[in-house]
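wait is this the right file?? whatever heres the structure
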């Protein structure tokens, strides 16, 4: 059995959300403090902001399972976060 913990992530969206047939939006976020990657899930109807790759986001939710990375795609393992809220900020610009 897994116990979930409350978590707040402030970081950068790794991609625009994809929406599954059951209306769940899912996208990756890299936390700016820890540099860990998280897989954020939220009901698509609750995602009230346009999120694109490089957008700054703040996510509140519960962290649970770890999703293993796919080494052949260069993906890191990520912790799954069931988000209660997602706030969008400005785009992060790279030099």
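ok assuming it is, sequence goes like this
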């Amino acid at each position: 059995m897994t116990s979930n913990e409350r978590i707040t992530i402030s970081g950068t969206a790794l991609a625009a959300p994809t929406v599954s047939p059951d209306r769940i939006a899912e996208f990756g976020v890299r936390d700016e403090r820890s540099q860990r990657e998280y897989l954020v899930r939220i009901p698509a109807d609750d995602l009230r902001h346009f999120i694109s790759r490089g957008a700054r986001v703040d996510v509140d939710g519960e962290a649970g399972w770890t999703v293993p990375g796919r080494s052949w795609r260069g993906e890191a393992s990520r912790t799954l976060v069931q988000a209660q809220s997602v706030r969008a900020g400005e785009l992060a610009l790279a030099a």
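The radius of gyration is 13 Å. so i think its the right one actually
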